[in-house]
Hints:
This protein is of the alpha+beta class. Helix content is 36%, strand content 22%. It has helices at residues 2-8, 17-23, 32-41, 46-61, 136-142, 149-163; strands at residues 69-76, 87-90, 102-117, 122-132. Strands 1, 2, 3 and 4 form a 4-stranded antiparallel beta sheet that branches. The radius of gyration is 19 Å and the shape is globular. It starts with a helix and ends in an 11-residue tail after the last helix.
Amino acid sequence: MKVSVTGAIPAPGKRTVSSVLRIMGLSEEKRFHKYHRVLSLVEWSALAAARVLLLLLPACFLPAGEVIIGIDETLERRWGKMIRQRGIYRDSVRSSGSHFVKSSGLRWISLMLLVPVSWANRIRALPFLSVPAPGERYNQQEGKRHKKITGWARQMLLQVKRWLPERKSNCRRR
């Protein structure tokens, strides 16, 4: 597994098992197929992976003190018949204070751990959890209750608070 994660970082293009193994110099591996089998048989949970990542990041970058979490909304411009959650949203990258631009795509909300980088005199955002936030029209078509972005952000922050109970937090329930 360590080989897969290490090889996924520099892999160009799609990060497939084959490209990761080639990057790691294992293209001539005789048991190449076993990597595919292990990864396809395991049940994966993105939420569990986000929890593990969040527990590792502060231990590495913020051993003590307050954890500061950043929230960002991102629009991923994707097309295709199979992408049903696509909607039309304000494009914050192309819009400005006086110019409003709409784009079609998937809307994601991301949580990032904000850590100071001493040698760069800056704060860096290390993402650990992203959740799709479908639009109201999609939820109506699916018969689901629509949740606003603020509702998603609140729910995500409360989850972080449950994952890091020993850290100081400014998240409060009303």
